[in-house]
Amino acid sequence: MKKCVALLLGLAFIVLISGISRAQTGGNADFDSNGEIEFADFILFAGAWGGSDAKFDLNGNGTVDFPDFLDFVTKYQIANPGPPPAPEIDLSATSLDFGNVDTGQSSNLVLTVSNTGNALLTVSEIASSDGQFTVSGSAFTIGGGASEVVTVTFTPGAAGGHSGTLTIGSDDSNEGSLEVSLSGTGTTPAPVLKQVLIVDTPGSTRHIMLLVSEGEFPMGTDKLVNVPDLEENVPGAVGEPLASSVHTVFLSNYYIDQFEVTNEQFLVFLNNVGRNFDPTVGEFTPLIDLSGMEVQIRFSTRYEITSVTLFNRPAVYATWVGANAYCQWMGGRLPTEVEWEKAAVGTDGRPYPWGSGTPVSSRANIRGFMESAADVGSFPRGVSPYGVHDMAGNVQEWVFDWFSAEYYKVTPRENPQGPGSGTQRTVKSSDWLAFYNEIHPFDSENGIIGARRNGRDPINAGVNLGFRCVQDPSP
């Protein structure tokens, strides 16, 4: 029976020492006289339960009973108050990964430092082992149940992986110093491209080139109709729509000449290289035809322009071989057909460089009003969305691609280079004789629309055919 009583008293003792209020009591509970009230005293008390031993009858009522037990528990709590209130530190994360950050740039992550204890927590230091990881604070205090947000910043000084350790010291006697692992990767930022690129040639002439930013654009047209010849001048006539050639193409960044290559620039090229052929092609294929009736460059003891009024005209009578050789000489290349067309009409589906407005002589050198090519850049009202001049009218232009009427039905989606072979090279744009029917503006014979394309023998030349160059951004 006494064993059962002792067990029940033990359970009650455990419960009560955590919750009983500390009231004033009498008697001495140090039963073994060792100067401390401890669990051994409780064992002695339990052994005297129900008796009348005055040593254990703390309230003096003649019996060792439950009120004496409550007195003992109270005295035990007073003698053994337990640990004082203490702080307890807790972190929201044990590691922080910043991912990819451009060198010289910064990225921030937050770390929450909490005090889950019931006394004031002092954070004495927050230190990083790597100077590329910095912290917003170094020392602070946090009340019980409160928290503090710390901002950790990663600013990589070089490309590659970086790691470090964040050490947080506090007066939490159990945790001491805590560590947070830090990691991040410095990346090389993409270069910021100039909008305008000035290129000096080996002959000290200069090209102004404009940036065409990477991205998609709708190449081709869905506007053309086939109006019968007998109905071309009938306002109410409706032509049969031609199949759409519109398809989406992605192009990387490139620069394109703001103006067509001029006679002066091509003249300097000829005198700089000292020959009228490309050695990789053969001396029987000229860079420029000097035999035509309307040639604007001739050779006596050196190459020269036939009239001072022609210096700023487009360089006509250049073969595709000559156009290609010139662009390589100046540090660039001929544009692909896709690059030429995007630079001409932009990304919004417009039919002409200036938009959808009527092609008139104030926007482009067309319909024979000037009876010849004009100086480059003479029609600023007709510039393309990128600021490129004379992408309609004046002269047609060589581009890099071999010509195929069917190629753009199977073209690659990204940076297409044209067919791998052929007999003709592609020609884009229109010239000063380009036709435009005001009654049926999108008749299939419209020669001014930006999607216009045809092919010519690469050794052909003409008074209505010139070119311009492109250049890739420097890596």
Note down, in words, how this protein is organized.
By secondary structure, this protein is α+β, with helices and mostly antiparallel strands. It has 3 domains: 2-79, no CATH class; 89-187, Sandwich (Immunoglobulin-like), CATH 2.60.40.10; 196-471, paralog of FGE (formylglycine-generating enzyme) (Alpha-Beta Complex), CATH 3.90.1580. It has 6 helices and 25 strands. It has helices at 2-17, 39-47, 66-79, 263-273, 320-329, 337-345; strands spanning 89-91, 95-102, 107-115, 121-128, 133-135, 140-142, 147-154, 160-170, 178-187, 196-200, 206-212, 215-219, 225-226, 240-241, 247-251, 254-257, 277-278, 282-286, 297-299, 303-305, 396-402, 425-428, 453-456, 465-467, 470-471. The strands form 8 sheets. Strands 2-9-8-4-6 form a 5-stranded mixed sheet, with no helix packed on it. A 4-stranded antiparallel sheet has the order 1-3-7-5, with no helix packed on it. Helix 1 (2-17) crosses helix 3. The longest helix has 16 residues, at 2-17. The protein starts with a helix and ends with a strand. Residues 15-25 have low confidence and may be disordered.
Percent range for β-strand residues:
25-35%
CATH topology category name of the largest domain = paralog of FGE (formylglycine-generating enzyme)
Strand arrangement in the largest pleated sheet: 2-9-8-4-6
Class based on secondary structure composition and strand pairing: alpha+beta
What's the main sheet like?
5 strands, mixed
Give the total of beta strands.
25
CATH superfamily of the largest domain: paralog of FGE (formylglycine-generating enzyme)
Gyration radius over CA: 45 Å
Global morphology: elongated
Residue share in helix: 10-25%
Tell me the number of helical segments per DSSP (H or I, 4 or more residues long).
6
- Our count of domains comes out at 3
- Please mark out the parts with pLDDT under 50 across 5 or more consecutive residues, or reply none: 15-25
